[in-house]
Amino acid sequence: MAGSEDPFDAIVMADDRFRGEGYQEGYEEGSSLGIIEGRRHGTLYGAKVGSEVGCYQGFALAWRCLLHSCAAAEKDSRKMKVLESLIGMIEKFPYDDPTYARLHEDLDRIRGKFKQLCSLLNVQPDFRVSAERSGLSF
Hints:
Layout: H1 7-68, H2 72-75, H3 78-92, H4 103-121, E1 127-129, E2 134-136
Antiparallel strand pairs: 1-2
Helix pairs in contact: 1-3, 1-4, 3-4
């Protein structure tokens, strides 16, 4: 029996081999599914953020037009300064860089500036992002 393998070693080695193959197959399948799920989640979250920031931008640009058509005293008011600040923040927002480290901080600042502007304009904001409905309502 010196020239042949021990049957118990073959069983132990088969177990190790099958475990290794199973791990590799599971890893490859999990990686593939993880990429698909990650892409789906990123697309959904990115669409929500883009919709929210786009809504703020449309709101700000509409109010800029409205306030520019008002009296000269209204143009130099605090409303215009906050409005221009919001527009500037939105223009600097990194839409195309998902790895931007301060993305959430900047988004929170935009939300805060939007709320401040709504308070100054005496407008009640109601921004909802959901599968059923998305947008601002007053």
